Amino acid sequence: MTGEPATPLLDTIRIPDDLRKLKPEALEQLAQELRAETIAAVGETGGHLGSGLGVVELTIALHYVFATPDDRVVWDVGHQAYPHKILTGRRDRIRTLRQGGGLSGFTKRSESEYDPFGAAHSSTSISAALGFAIANKLSGAPGRGIAVIGDGAMSAGMAYEAMNNARAAGNRLVVILNDNDMSIAPPVGGLSAYLAKLVSSQQFLSMRELARKVSRRLPEPLHRAAKKTDEYARGMAMGGTLFEELGFYYVGPIDGHNLDQLVPVLENVRDATSGPCLVHVVTQKGKGYGPAEQSADKYHGVQKFNVVTGEQVKSAGGPPSYTGIFAKALIAEAEQDSRICAITAAMPSGTGLDKFAQKFPDRSFDVGIAEQHAVTFAAGLAAQGMRPFCAIYSTFLQRAFDQVVHDVAIQNLPVRFAIDRAGLVGADGATHAGSFDVTYLSTLPNFVVMAAADEAELVHMVHTAVMHDDGPIAFRYPRGEGVGVELPAVPERLEIGKGRIVREGSKVALLSLGTRLAEARKAADALEAKGLSTTVADLRFAKPLDTDLIRKLMLSHEVVVTIEEGAIGGLGAHVLTMASDEGLTDNGLRIRTMRLPDVFQDQDKPELQYDTAGLNAPQIVETVLKALRHNSAGVSEARA
Question: What CATH number belongs to 322-476?
Answer without folding.
Answer: 3.40.50.970
